[in-house]
Amino acid sequence: IREHDGGQPHDKAEAGALAEAAQAAGITAEALRRLWADHPDARAYLAYLTQYGPAAMGAAAMALGWNATRAWQAEARLRAAGLVSMDDLGRARPLGSTP
């Protein structure tokens, strides 16, 4: 909503949404990021990406034996925690990895 309807740049829109969610939960944005990153599925998804490189969500789901919703949730947690970004092909890539 912030990005499309509000005209905010993507990174600013995500930061604002994270701050709102954290405030609603009564915690800091950094604490919310840590909670998301510490989820077992997020850790497994990140381990997969680190070992095998950038992957589309569907490919990661198949490799991990998950359904698409579970993989999407893990990827969303990692993106919100700032641990992965999306490349030009729509694949999740651990931050710090080379294209």
Could you explain the architecture of this structure?
The protein has 99 residues and is mainly alpha-helical. The protein is built from five helices and two strands. The protein has helices at residues 10-25, 29-37, 40-52, 57-64, 68-80; strands spanning 84-86, 92-94. It has a two-stranded antiparallel ribbon with strand order 1-2. A hairpin with a 5-residue loop joins β1 and β2 (92-94). The protein is globular, with a radius of gyration of 14 Å. The protein starts with 9 loop residues before the first helix and ends in a 5-residue tail after the last strand. The model has no long low-confidence stretch (mean pLDDT 90).
Q: Provide mean pLDDT, rounded.
A: 90
Low-confidence stretches: none
How many beta strands in the DSSP annotation?
Answer: 2
Helix content: 55-70%
Q: Estimate what percentage of residues fall within beta strands.
A: 5-15%
Shape: globular
Structural class, judged by helices and strands? mainly alpha
Query: Helical region count?
Result: 5
Order of helices and strands: HHHHHEE
Going across the biggest sheet, name each strand in turn: 1-2
Report the end-to-end length measured between terminal Cα atoms. 29 Å
Main beta sheet strand tally, sense and closure:
2 strands, antiparallel
Radius of gyration: 14 Å
Give a concise summary:
With 99 residues, the chain is mainly alpha-helical. The chain is built from five helices and two strands, in the order H-H-H-H-H-E-E.
